[in-house]
Design goal:
Largest sheet: none
Structural class: mainly alpha
Number of helices: 9
Distance between the termini: 18 Å
Shape: elongated
Helix content: over 70%
Oligomer: single chain
Number of domains: 1
Radius of gyration: 20 Å
Strand content: under 5%
Order of helices and strands: HHHHHHHHH
Number of strands: 0
Amino acid sequence: MLKEIIIAIQSYGDAHRFIVKHKLWQWILIPGLIYSVMFFTGMYFFGKSVNAAIEYLLLTTGAGEWVKSHAHGLFKILFSITYFAIWLVLMLLFFSLFKYLFLIIGSPVFAYLSEKTEAIIEGKEFPFSFKQLLHDIARGIRIALRNALWQTVYTISIFILSLIPVVGLFSTFLAILIESYYFGFSMLDYSCERNKLSTSQSIAFIGRHKGLAIGNGLVFYLMHLVVFVGWILAPSYSVIAATLSLIKTKEKL
């Protein structure tokens, strides 16, 4: 799995060179700008809501005042870390739901980019079909809803784990891995669909290549650390990188 994670990470560099060489910037910037506006607006308002919710919980339970009055030293540090872990897990939950909304909205563009990438590499064109486009959109929505459901179940479990001192410290890392896997899953599925794999076959195939999904999603999230520029580039880079990473694997779709 580690080898596939490395392949997925390296594929982002390949994606950048591919985009520059084939002048695909119009398919990068327009959806990227839309995504950036949606991302900033959503994170701003949800961040305020999460802070208010946690403060209300501490106030109603009296935990906040108790910590301020009685807790000292290591316990205060653990409390602060747990507070941050809870906040981060809740933000990841929002990011997860927001991400799937954007995947549904952007599925026509992502399906086209994945198809365009493979067509250029293999030197062939996939004939445009409006019927096929509608099928791609419908499948993208089904996959997004399925992944959103399973990821929400896992994230709620992780949130409960984050409430446990010390043990909860690992919850954030686990949440990021799950986030990365399910995002990468959606990016890889465009290639699986184009190669006539059913939804169940795609799930089985990506299950055998978890490293590609995790690596793809991990870089997608890391790109968000580069404010605005990373937000613009992350969505389209991820789908092209996913397509390239699958081409590198020896197992035929």
